[in-house]
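Weekly structure sync - notes
Attendees: PM, LS, DV (DV joined late)
Agenda: review two folding runs queued last week.

Item 1: First target. Sequence and structure tokens pasted below for the record.
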Amino acid sequence: MSGIQLERRTRQLLHAVIQEFVRTGRPVGSRTLAKVHPDKLSPATIRNLMADLEEMGLLQQPHTSAGRIPTDRAYRLYVDSLDMNPRLDPGDRRLVNDAFRELDGNFDQVLERVSHFLSSLSHQIGVVLCGSIDRIDLRRMEFVALGNRRVLALFVSVSGMVSQKLLQLDEEIGQEDLDRVGRYLSDEFAGQSLRRIRERLLEMMAEEKARYDQLLAQVLAVGNRFFEPTPSDSQVYVEGTANLVGQPDFPDLERMRALFRTFEEKGKVVQLLNRCVEGDGVAVRIGAEQGDPELEGTSVIASPFFFQDRAAGTLGIIGPTRMEYARLIAMVDQISHLVSRHLTHAAE
């Protein structure tokens, strides 16, 4: 929260500056504001109010022109004044609903498509983060022998997500034995989270029976290799980085390259979304609030999505701080609800 209180006409003036700057991308002058302010204030009065807003750190003058642009603090004050449970306007609602009518496929394909929807509907960067694999529940496991002690492991979650990992074993295990290992893990651990399965396998290693049971020995040899945590356990889908190209907010080529590098690093995107979302609803992080100098000038609007009342991941939009916050907050909110409903119904 900003903690700044403004009188009505000053608040209206600040909102008018933000809305005009979002619309045009150009610094806003007093003559322009005189035409749009509901109280029809004189240009001189507007200049005085703008000077007050500049002293409060809510407006800044980018160069010697008379125009002003909003600061991060101004956007925060504006966002805090918005309804965080908004409704899409009819046109956007039709676009979102039409997109979801085409949604089909397994868990991964659905999330990849959703990142595309977010990007194309917002004209910003669409991002979807599937929650850490530790929290995903098992439906079944399959293993395919590839030779030279290499095994392809396939994990299917209860939500339909398919994950695969190439394993290098210490000794060769034939396909028939791998089939038995897959059946054992599927029967024994179906419905349990990967974190719990990993804990149980470690417990089994300490049990006397595992030393003498060939099947258990193979289960432990293969299972431990698959369930060991790795940095790639979170699936991240990023779509639309090209939407930043040509925007007046990022005129510096080196600045643009730095942003692209940031979005190419999956770990940074995961940290960004995890920092942004702390509760159940839509969250907005603006500019410096993200705590990363490379993301200066950008904002994130994000929301968790759910599978059967359990948090399954996060989706959102990343773009310049000069964005349509009210519209995009409503869009992220609606899409997160539709994704949650789709994933839950698809698993029934």
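Item 2: Second target, run right after the first with the same settings.
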Amino acid sequence: MSARSNAYKKAGVDIDAGERLISRIAARVHETFGPNVLGDLRGFANAYSLGGQAGLFSSDYSDPVLVACTDGVGTKLKLAFETNIHDTVGQDLVAMSVNDLITCGAEPLFFLDYFATGKLDVGVAEKVIVGIASACKAARCALIGGETAEMPDMYSKGEYDLAGFAVGVVERDKMIDGAKIEPGDVVIGMLSSGLHSNGYSLVRKLLLKGRGRMDLAEPVPELGEALGDCLLRPTCIYADAVRTVCSRYKVKEIVKALAHITGGGLIENIPRILPEACAVEIDTALWDRPPVFGLLQEKGKITDDEMYRVFNMGIGMVLVCPDYNAQAILRTLRSKRASTPSRIIGRVVKGKRSVKIKHASA
């Protein structure tokens, strides 16, 4: 090893560790490639074909529009550090971006990740990136590259941060925008797996700090499982569900709008897809919320309104459609191909763009 390399290593950056990581993850990442991916992991950038002999999309799109978004996992990562469980946060990373992408009807094409840490632990990084690759396969998008940054003194020992970037494509005249929503339409909720990746600063304050501190490894009777297992359950990826529905029903006329329920909950996210003169009434008696939300509300003595403004409360994605089509769409979502438990959770009414929550206890 050269003197220069030794000096950099003594400063806290191990170039060889980065090379070892690439060699470990290469096979899993390549599993996400299709004929559209034109490069490999060794270049400075990668390429994805939208047409030509290698492409899948040249005959499907006459006026393709590229759609892009980015997100992270947030303080849920703190639980991964504490439990030393690192394979689930990769799915969280992919889901947070891909679920945003599909709300306009876009087909996910490819994904890139950014992994930053103080000192690179190849084994930990491998688990994270293998999780990312597995989630990309589930979403049917290629993991075409990423960046691993080793930055001594920037992060505490054993910690890292993640960011993800997704790109998709949609035909311009098939972009789902909510413009045709009208009073009488039905709001369908696709159930979440739990907390997903939002609200963890509050979760950690209520359950893992001070007098209320709970043991992540201990079973919690109210949850029916260990607290750590519940809190680290990964975010659902709704790409196949949305893909299936959009392939069977006309977008815009029938699949009128989709909303990813993340930070801000139902109250803040649904209005983003509504026309100015439409409101939504949600009835919380129409679905069973996961028990973790009851635990959090009790521990923090949080009002119903704040709970529905911070957390997804058991609904990870919302779809708006005409009343006439609602039952058929529910059957499609629950089919083997989509495999997404779903419920009618409310309706569109006349009013100023907003969401009104009717609480089950009211």
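Discussion on item 2: The first strand starts at residue 64 and ends at 72.
Action: LS to circulate a short write-up before next sync.
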